[in-house]
């Protein structure tokens, strides 16, 4: 009996494909979408703490105000904004534009640069308003 599967080509995977900006942004868009579930639970936790009482609200504010809490909130802010920019990219594609390779690559790069810049801007404004 001859093994017919031995000569079959393997399914393409990351070892075959060269990562391009649109592919990377597609993967990151999915990851940020998943991260938003966790971040939204943090927002809900904060709102529930506000409705529960002053002592519990102070505890949650302390946790979210710690260094680790701020890093998590910074990541949540970036994930939210990056997912928003990815949504805009998909909206443009839904309208039938931006399919050209050069344009889609520019949109992918703009989404990462825009989300990073806007995250920094949001946090700078947040710190300026706080004090």
From TrEMBL:
Q: What are the UniProt keywords, alphabetically?
A: Heme, Iron, Membrane, Metal-binding, Plasmid, Transmembrane, Transmembrane helix
- What highest taxon heads this organism's lineage? Bacteria
Q: What's the chief localization of this chain?
A: membrane
Membrane topology (UniProt): Multi-pass membrane protein
Q: Which family does it belong to?
A: Belongs to the cytochrome b560 family.
Q: Which NCBIfam families match?
A: succ_dehyd_cytB
Name used for this protein in its record:
Succinate dehydrogenase cytochrome b556 subunit
